């Protein structure tokens, strides 16, 4: 009988080695696929992990959360939660710049309040300067360090712009005045009607980077942007159907500069007349002072009517201001020339310095006067 065991032993050993290799190597080969399958999220669960927190050297804003609530009265209700990292340097708080004027349009920024969930001083002070409302949160007599959280709430009236077929809101939810980087920024927009047209652009002025968007039902949309550089913001644009909310008409003021060619011509003539004052006898100093006073009154009158009607930062300057500046320039030139002439005169009114007087016909004798004293005849020249 043939040796069956010898014939079967070789193939059996080879099959066993292949089976053992397959058993041990299969998990290694299928590991990534199996891990991916195990990590497959269920319905309603986000596939990606939360964005990592960016680390910066020096001061920064790790998280910036904004909620923009559109009221039925047309008012924009803003709530900002700012997590500010002061690093190791001590500061008295933060300053948020909210625009109340863009070009010739005014916004009604009001009812500003603040708080802090980390116990930092949260006293709020508001100051209007040029185009912004400066919201200062903190204490002048106390410094804070490390990571602090602030909550700023305010309202913005007349924020919507009526259009032909819709009402539009364009608002930078973060602003471009922050001089520190922002790690993670989130803006939530809530409206009393379904939001069908809402967009977000992130970056500096004029940037077109789209923000990450997540719809939370028909009445709310979340926009997210990571790693914002200093002076980069998130501009939100919302369009609502007509009569969905009560929209008050926008408020406009005259531009800062309304001057025309007549005022410019008067100012140019004044500048051209200043060099001529040194070539001709200058009027009295009182005349120059009077012109300066009259010019200042014209400038104040030009800006005062706008300030009295709309506030100190609604001034507008025009031809009256240019005419006033012309009078100030001419008057200041007369005063300067008069003072320069007075500096070259003696206390009794006679001119000072070395002057030649009493020259005879044949130019053989001269008398010199220096600071009012008669120096007599000059010494004879050699060879005379």
Automatic annotation (TrEMBL):
Which Pfam family is one of those matched by this entry?
Answer: DUF2207
> Could you tell me which residue ranges the DUF2207 domain spans?
60-238
Q: Report the domain of life of the source organism.
A: Bacteria
Q: Where is this region: Disordered?
A: 37-56
Protein name, entry field = DUF2207 domain-containing protein
Source species: Actinomadura darangshiensis
């Amino acid at each position: 009988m043939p040796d069956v065991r010898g014939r079967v032993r070789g193939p059996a050993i080879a099959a066993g080695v292949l089976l053992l290799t397959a058993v041990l190597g299969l998990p290694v080969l299928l590991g990534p696929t199996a891990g991916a399958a195990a990590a497959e999220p269920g319905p309603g669960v986000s596939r990606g992990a939360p964005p990592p927190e960016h680390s910066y050297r020096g001061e920064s804003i790790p998280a910036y959360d904004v909620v923009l609530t559109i009221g039925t009265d047309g008012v924009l209700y803003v709530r900002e939660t700012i997590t500010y990292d002061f690093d190791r340097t001590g500061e008295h708080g933060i300053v948020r710049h909210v625009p109340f004027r863009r070009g010739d349009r005014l916004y009604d920024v009001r009812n500003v309040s603040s708080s802090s969930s980390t116990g930092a001083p949260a006293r709020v002070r508001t100051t209007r300067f040029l185009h912004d409302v400066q919201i200062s949160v903190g204490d002048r007599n106390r410094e804070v360090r490390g990571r602090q959280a602030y909550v700023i709430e305010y309202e913005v009236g007349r924020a919507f712009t009526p259009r032909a077929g819709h009402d539009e809101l364009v608002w930078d939810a973060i602003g471009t005045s922050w001089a520190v980087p922002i790690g993670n920024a989130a803006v939530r927009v809530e409206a009393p009607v379904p939001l069908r047209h809402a967009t977000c652009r992130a970056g500096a002025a004029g940037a077109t980077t789209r923000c990450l968007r997540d719809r939370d039902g028909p009445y709310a949309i979340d926009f997210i942007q990571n790693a914002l550089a200093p002076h980069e913001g998130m501009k939100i644009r919302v369009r609502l159907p007509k009569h969905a909310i009560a929209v008050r008409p926008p408020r406009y003021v005259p531009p800062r500069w309304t001057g025309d060619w007549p005022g410019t011509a008067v100012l140019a003539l004044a500048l051209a007349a200043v060099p001529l004052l040194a070539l001709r006898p200058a009027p009295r100093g009182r005349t120059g002072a009077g012109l300066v006073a009259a010019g200042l009154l014209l400038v104040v009158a030009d800006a005062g009517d706008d300030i009295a009607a709309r506030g100190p930062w609604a001034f507008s300057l025009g031809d009256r201001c240019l005419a006033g500046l012309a009078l100030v320039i001419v008057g200041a030139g007369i005063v300067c020339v008069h003072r320069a002439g007075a500096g070259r005169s003696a206390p009794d009114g006679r001119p000072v310095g070395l002057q030649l007087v009493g020259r005879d016909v044949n130019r053989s004798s001269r008398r010199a006067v220096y600071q009012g004293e008669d120096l007599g005849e000059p010494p004879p020249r050699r060879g005379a």
